[in-house]
Structure formats: C-alpha cells, structure tokens
Specification:
The protein has 263 residues and is α/β, with parallel strands linked by helices. The chain is built from six helices and ten strands; from the N terminus they run H-E-H-E-E-H-E-H-E-H-H-E-E-E-E-E. 31% of the residues lie in helices and 18% in strands. The strands form three sheets. Strands 3-2-1-4-5 form a five-stranded mixed sheet, with helices on both faces. Strands 6-9-8 form a three-stranded antiparallel sheet. It has a two-stranded antiparallel ribbon with strand order 7-10.
Length: 263
C-alpha cells in the first residue's frame, strides 16, 4: 500500500485538480524515490485510461495485443503516464491510480494544460534518469499533450526514447477539421508504428507490416471507445459483460477510453 487509508486526503480525486492532488503528488513521488523498477530489455510507456485498472481497459488490451505478440513478461516493463504522473503498471490497482476521475483530453483550460506539461515532463525526466541502467530500449506510444510531455522529458533527461507514432505517419493522417486532428492511437497505421518499434528494439524481423485485428475484452461492456482518426474511424460493436468486442473499420466516429483524446 503506497498511502495508508488513514493518511489519505479528504480532497476528492475528481476534475482538473487531480494533477496536483496531494495524494497523487505523494504517490508519484513514492514511485520516483522508493519504488525499485525491474531490469528489463525494453520499457514501453503507454497513456493512462479512463477505465480502471488500466490493464483491464480496452485501450490497454489493445496495447498488450501488440506488445505481447513479440515479448514475454520478463523482457518488457510497461509504464503508464499522463494524468497519473508515472505509474508502473503493476501498481495500477493501488490508490490513487485506481481511484481518480479526470481526462486531460477533454480539458480545454490552458492553465491546466500548461501545469500538466511542466509537471509531467519533469516527472518523466526524473524517471528516465533514474532508470538509465534498467532498460536497454525505451518506447513511448502517445499523441497530444502526453506526447509533448514525453518529448520535453527526453530533452531534459537526454535519455533516448523512441516515440511513436512516427511524425511522418502523423502528418499523413493529420486532419485539421477534426477536434483531435491527429486522430486516435487505435488507428491501424499508428499501431503498425508501435509494432515496428517493438520488433526493432527486440531485434525481430519487421518484414510483416500487417497489424493483426484487435479484439478487446472488457469486464463491463466496452461502451464508447473513442477514435478520431481522420480518414477512417472505428465502429465498436459493444456487448455486455465478458464478451469479446468486435472492432471493425468503418466510417463511424466512436470514442476511445485512453486519457488523452487521444488519445
């Protein structure tokens, strides 16, 4: 337990104040000062999700379908970042990472965004510096504000991170008419960039450029996974408890559960 129940703040973990909530600050500081990261060949940074715990969310099931197609658990460490600060995913059932309610991607308050960029880039930079000897390769799969924070963290720490999707892929898919002009991490071309980055880091053959169809399971019906891809978006056929969700390509706009919209 990171923060004992009797030491937790009475302040609600809801809304834009989550970023600087005393318990969130304390938990992230614990990760950066007391947590001992495992030594792995590859670290993959992925965005936090609306659904908790992260590893059971539709977006993280999609990430895992790519990551663990090639890697075993003893080769990779998955770290979540974003609204939650920096959270090794094996801690995603811990308070407060399991308990907050805020999606930065839906926030249009410039001050909140500025505070997030500054705070998150510093946190990520600290984690990158602290773990320089823990991983041989680092990959971050992110768009939007999370990507800006990761790029700044790389600049601050001078630790190499392969950030995907690739800039060229993003430019190709960019559509200024959409609210989220670079679309969603559910876009198959973005997934292909992650697939290739993992293969390259692991020294695997990258000749197969086809990303397999993704099927996500959700404990409580995957309602509304939002993708804002520019040319084609994803139609989510959602069923109820413990039923496989069929994700098909179509011209219907849906929603993504990842925190940055996306994100």
């Amino acid at each position: 337990m990171i923060i004992p129940e009797h030491e937790r703040s009475a302040e609600p973990l809801i809304g834009e104040n989550v970023i600087k909530h005393p318990d969130m600050v304390r938990a992230v500081e614990w990760v950066l000062t007391e947590y001992e990261p495992p030594k792995r060949e590859i670290c993959i940074f992925v965005p936090c999700s609306k659904a908790k715990p992260y590893h059971e969310s539709p977006s993280h099931k999609m990430f895992d379908s790519i990551i663990f197609r090639y890697l075993t658990f003893d080769r990779v460490h998955v770290v979540v970042f974003g609204t939650c600060g920096v959270t090794p995913r094996e801690l995603d059932v811990e308070y407060p990472f399991m308990d907050y309610q805020f999606m930065l991607g839906r926030c249009d308050i410039p001050k909140v965004k500025r505070e997030f960029h500054k705070l998150e880039s510093q946190r990520l930079a600290r984690y990158l510096e602290l773990t320089k000897q823990h991983y041989r390769h680092r990959i971050a799969y992110c768009l939007g504000d999370f990507r800006l924070a990761m790029e700044k963290a790389v600049e601050l720490s001078q630790v190499k991170v392969d950030i995907v999707p690739k800039s060229g892929t993003m430019e190709k898919l960019h559509n200024p008419d959409l609210k989220f002009s670079f679309g969603s991490l559910y876009h198959q071309e973005y997934q292909r960039d992650l697939d290739e980055a993992i293969c390259q880091a692991a020294g695997l053959d990258t000749s197969n450029d086809t990303v397999t169809d993704i099927q996500a399971t959700s404990d409580d019906a995957v309602a509304d996974i939002q993708t804002t891809s520019d040319d084609v978006v994803t139609d989510i056929q959602t069923t109820s408890d413990d039923v496989i969700t069929d994700i098909r390509r179509t011209n219907v706009q849906v929603t993504d559960d990842s925190d940055w919209y996306i994100i």
